[in-house]
Design goal:
Shape: globular
Radius of gyration: 28 Å
Number of strands: 24
Strand order of the largest sheet: 1-2-4-3-5-10-6-7
Number of helices: 14
C-alpha cells in the first residue's frame, strides 16, 4: 500500500481541528528546563513529549534514591519480559498505616493515553522536593506510571491520529494484541492479574484510571465519571453517593480554579450528528468503572479530551490527583465507611447485561464547539468540520442511560469442577473466597442446560465468544472430583461470582468462550438405526406420537427436514448424550 503524507513533521496533525488557546493557572506547576528534577515532559519546549519506558524508570530510580518518601515496587512482568512497577509515596515506610486512606492512580492501561504518567512524575517530584510532602501526612499514594509496558514501547508518531500529543505515543493494545481495559473481569492477561494482586495487597480507598478520549470535539478538557453518577444504578451505591456528593463538587471547583473545564464522562451517540445526544458509554464490568462498582473499589475513570494539547491534559491530571489526595485526607473516612456498607450488600437479584436505553432519561446542558458540514470529495458525502471555537450557547443534549436486559438470581454457592483449574485460578486471582474439596463429593444441585447457545462469528480479545439467552434448570446429584471448589456468594465479591459463573451473563467465563466443550456432541446414531426405533417409539407411546405430529404440523421447515425429524426422536432416547449442553458449574440454591 502506498503512503502519501504531507511533507511536515510526522506529529504535525494539521488535519485535526484547531485547539482553542489556553493559559490556565495550572501552568505555574511547570518547572524550568534548568531544574535538576525537571521531567522530560516539562523539559520539552512544546510540552508535547513523554519519555520511554527505560528513561521513565531511570528517572524514578533517581527519585527513589534521593528521597525517603519514594519507593518503587515491582508487581508483575509483561509478556515481553518488562517489569511492571508502581511508585509509592508514603511517610509510613514499607508498611502502610491502616488508618490512612490510599489513593491508587493507574496510568497507561492504554499507553498512548499517558497523561497520568507525566502528571504523576511532576507531583511525586513536588512531594519529594518542593514543599508538597504534607500531602502524605494523612494519605498514601500509589502511582502505576505505565501498566501496559509492552504497548508503551510499541511507540511512534502514528499511534493515535485523533489525539493531540504527545508526539511519540504508545500503542493501544499489548504485545499479545489485547486491550487491557476489557480484561478486568476475565483476567486473561498477566498485566491485569498483576494489578489485581496489587489492589488486593494495598486495598486502595480510591482507584483512578487515567485515559484520553476519542470522539467529538467539546470544550471540556478533563472529563471523568463512575458507575452510579447522578443517582444512576451502581453495585456500590454508597460509595457512588460519596463520589457524587463529596468528590465531584470539590474536584470541579479545584479544576476550575486552575483554569480547566471539568465535565461528566459522556460519549456522543452519533459522530455525524453531535447534537443528537449523549450516552454513559455502558456500565460493563470488563471496564474499570464497572469492575470497581462490582468489586466495591471506588473507581473513577478519567477521560481527558484528546483534542486538547498534551500540556493542558497533563496539568489537569496533576490537579485531579492532588485534589483527590486532599479530599481523601480530609474526608476519606466517609468513603471508607460507604465502601464497608457496599461490601455488606447481598442483593438477591442482580441486574446484568446492560444496554443503552432507547429513550433519553434526561436532558443535559453541554459545552459544545462550533462546527460546520462540508462536502467531502473523499467520502462523497457531507462531513463534519470542527472549527476550534467554543459555542457561546449551551447545547441541551438528550442523555441516554443504560438498562439491564437480564436479572440473575443469587444462589447460595456455585460448584466448579476441579479439572477446570484455569477457572478456579482466575477466581482466586480476583480474591474470591472458596472451599476446596479434598475428596470427591456428590451434591444435589441445580444444573443448567443451555438452550441453543450461539458462537460468535469472529474473535474478540483472543476469544471466540458465546451467548445463550435461555437455560433449563435440572435438579441432579452431581459428583465433583477432588480439587473442585465450592464458591459461596455470601462474600463481598459475591456479585462478581454471579457475573462470572452464570452463563447468561455477558461478562461470564462462558460468554468469553471458556466452556466450548459444553457445545460438543460426541455420539451419534445413523438413520438406519433411529428410523425403525422412532417408529417403535411412536407405536408404544401415543402421547409422544401426538407431540411429534403437532410439531410437524406447526413447523414446515422441521417437517421437510428428515434429519431434524430423526434427531427429534434421538434426543428422547437413552442413547442421547446426557451431558450435551449441560453446563458443568452447579448452583447450590
Amino acid at each position: 500500500m502506498s503512503q502519501t503524507l504531507p511533507n511536515t513533521a510526522p506529529w504535525d496533525q494539521a488535519f485535526l481541528p484547531p485547539a482553542p488557546a489556553w493559559d490556565g493557572a495550572s501552568k505555574a506547576l511547570l518547572r524550568d528546563a534548568s531544574d535538576p528534577w525537571v521531567t522530560a515532559f516539562e523539559a520539552d519546549p512544546g510540552h508535547d513529549f513523554s519519555p520511554n519506558y527505560v528513561d521513565t524508570r531511570a528517572w524514578f530510580d533517581r527519585l527513589d534514591a534521593a528521597s525517603d518518601l519514594i519507593r518503587i515496587e515491582q508487581f508483575g512482568v509483561s509478556p515481553e519480559g518488562r517489569p511492571i512497577y508502581a511508585v509509592i509515596a508514603s511517610k509510613d515506610g514499607a508498611t502502610f498505616d491502616p488508618a490512612k486512606p490510599v489513593l491508587m492512580i493507574q496510568a497507561g492501561i492504554h499507553p498512548g493515553e499517558i497523561d497520568g504518567k507525566d502528571a504523576g512524575m511532576m507531583l511525586l517530584r513536588d512531594i519529594a522536593f518542593y514543599g508538597k510532602d504534607a500531602l502524605l501526612d494523612r494519605v498514601n499514594l500509589i502511582l502505576i506510571p505505565i501498566l501496559s509496558v509492552d504497548g508503551h514501547e510499541r511507540s511512534g508518531p502514528y499511534s493515535r491520529p485523533n489525539q493531540r500529543g504527545p508526539r511519540i505515543q504508545g500503542w493501544r493494545n499489548t504485545a499479545t494484541n489485547q486491550n487491557l481495559n476489557r480484561d478486568y473481569l476475565k483476567l486473561d492477561q498477566p498485566e491485569m492479574r498483576a494489578v489485581r494482586g496489587l489492589i488486593l495487597k494495598y486495598r486502595p480507598d480510591l482507584h483512578v484510571d487515567v485515559h484520553v478520549t476519542d470522539g467529538m470535539d467539546y470544550q471540556y478538557d478533563v472529563t471523568y465519571g463512575f458507575n452510579g453518577e447522578d443517582g444512576t444504578f451502581s453495585r456500590s451505591p454508597n460509595g457512588s453517593a460519596w463520589l457524587d456528593s463529596v468528590l465531584k463538587p470539590a474536584m470541579n471547583t479545584a479544576l476550575e480554579r486552575e483554569g480547566h473545564i471539568p465535565g461528566e464522562l459522556v460519549f456522543g451517540i452519533d459522530d455525524d450528528e453531535p447534537r443528537k445526544g449523549l450516552s454513559d458509554g455502558g456500565l460493563g464490568e470488563r471496564f474499570s468503572n464497572g469492575w470497581g462498582a462490582a468489586a466495591h473499589v471506588p473507581t473513577i475513570l478519567i477521560e481527558n479530551h484528546s483534542l486538547k494539547p498534551h500540556e493542558q491534559r497533563v496539568l489537569g491530571t496533576y490537579v485531579f490527583i492532588e485534589e483527590a489526595m486532599r479530599l481523601l485526607a480530609d474526608q476519606g473516612a466517609g468513603l471508607r465507611a460507604a465502601t464497608d456498607q457496599d461490601k455488606a450488600l447481598r442483593p438477591a437479584q442482580i441486574p446484568a447485561n446492560f444496554e443503552a436505553d432507547e429513550t433519553p432519561s434526561s436532558t443535559r446542558p453541554f459545552k459544545g464547539m462550533l462546527y460546520e458540514m462540508y462536502d467531502s470529495p473523499a467520502s462523497g458525502r457531507k462531513e463534519i468540520r470542527w472549527l476550534g471555537r467554543p459555542d457561546p450557547d449551551l447545547w441541551q443534549m438528550p442523555f441516554y442511560g443504560s438498562k439491564p436486559t437480564l436479572t440473575l438470581t443469587r444462589p447460595t454457592a456455585y460448584w466448579v469442577p476441579g479439572y477446570r483449574t484455569d477457572i478456579i485460578e482466575r477466581l482466586k486471582t480476583h480474591g474470591i473466597e472458596m472451599e476446596t474439596v479434598e475428596a470427591a463429593r456428590t451434591v444435589n444441585l441445580s444444573m443448567l442446560r443451555l438452550v441453543e447457545p450461539k458462537l460468535a462469528t469472529r474473535a474478540n480479545e483472543g476469544h471466540v465468544q458465546a451467548s445463550v439467552k435461555t437455560v433449563e434448570v435440572e435438579k441432579r446429584d452431581w459428583t465433583y472430583p477432588t480439587g473442585s471448589v465450592r464458591v459461596p456468594t455470601d462474600q463481598p465479591l459475591g456479585d462478581i461470582v454471579v457475573l462470572l459463573l452464570e452463563p447468561q451473563s455477558s461478562e461470564s467465563f462462558f460468554a468469553w468462550g471458556m466452556f466450548p466443550e459444553v457445545m460438543s456432541r460426541v455420539e451419534y446414531i445413523e438413520a438406519y438405526a433411529i428410523a425403525p426405533l422412532a417408529d417403535k417409539m411412536m407405536a408404544a407411546d401415543p402421547a409422544l406420537k401426538a407431540e411429534f405430529e403437532a410439531k410437524v404440523a406447526a413447523d414446515a421447515a422441521f417437517a421437510a427436514d428428515p434429519q431434524a425429524r430423526l434427531a427429534w426422536f434421538y434426543e428422547r432416547t437413552p442413547f442421547y448424550d446426557d451431558h450435551y449442553l449441560l453446563y458443568p458449574v452447579g448452583r447450590e440454591d
